[in-house]
Specification:
- With 145 residues, this protein is an alpha+beta fold.
- 43% of the residues lie in helices and 11% in strands.
- A two-stranded antiparallel ribbon has the order 1-2.
Length: 145
């Protein structure tokens, strides 16, 4: 829906929803559940949307769209898994998303510690990002002009 409206306004709305939900309490693809309704929560859908958005950032718009086309061509009308989606993205882009797939089973969100420094003599800005996770998560960072 970002493509049909103001992407900045849409992001603000999505972040408000994320902050109000139990975003960090659920993995997108849990290993098991007590009741099927636990799989279809707003938090799971919102977190899934964020994971797909990060994947689009990693792959770039063109590769992501090729992956979407491939995914629909392969699986239209079928029951599919998250792995099927990721495999289509990998095949269309040539990018290995093995490490990125941790996002599908991750409970919570990574805790980041960010520091920055600017050296005016070199006109150089350094951003340092550290994670405190057992398995480091692939988090794409984007510069905004």
């Amino acid at each position: 829906s970002e493509d049909t409206s103001s992407s900045a306004a849409k992001r603000i709305d999505e972040v408000i929803i994320l902050r109000d939900s139990q975003f960090s309490a659920h993995p997108v693809r849990p290993d098991s559940c007590i009741e099927i309704r636990n799989l279809y929560t707003a938090a799971v859908y919102e977190k899934g949307a964020e994971v797909i958005r990060m994947m689009r950032t990693i792959l770039g718009r063109e590769s992501f769209l090729r992956g979407m086309d491939l995914y629909f061509n392969r699986f239209d009308g079928q029951a599919v898994t998250c792995d099927d989606f990721v495999r289509a993205m990998e095949d269309a882009s040539g990018v290995d998303l093995t490490q990125f797939k941790l996002w599908y089973s991750q409970v919570g969100i990574p805790e980041l510690h960010v520091t920055s420094q600017y050296d005016p003599s070199k006109k150089q800005y350094t951003l340092t990002v550290k994670q405190n996770e057992k398995l480091p998560m692939h988090i794409p960072l984007v510069t905004i002009p």
